[in-house]
Amino acid sequence: MWKGCEGGIYFGSGWQASAWCKKHSDNVVIGTWNVDRKARVCRELVWYWPKGDSVESELDELGCIEHVVAPDGQIWRSCPDDKEWWQATGDSNLVKGDKFKSKKRKNIRKLGL
Question: Do β-strands 54-59 and 75-78 pair in parallel, antiparallel, or remain unpaired?
Fold first, then answer.
């Protein structure tokens, strides 16, 4: 879940990723995710939004989030260029399921993607 925009990203099966933000409710984000050789969860996303009668898009920067497991079983993560590590186990921002599926589908249809 992304608190800043009241939305979130969903990492789905088949290595598909998608996202939506209430702050930019006409937009949709579509892309892929994988786990690289360094065991980081990486994503590559394209942002789409309406502009007049057409659709604009922009490739988001590839982002990889590092994960480590502490001896006590706690999972920690760190975002690119961030020196801090954050607890992943028990984080309320990490939820199961695609909470914005219907909003994304609506925008995908509307944008003709």
Answer: unpaired
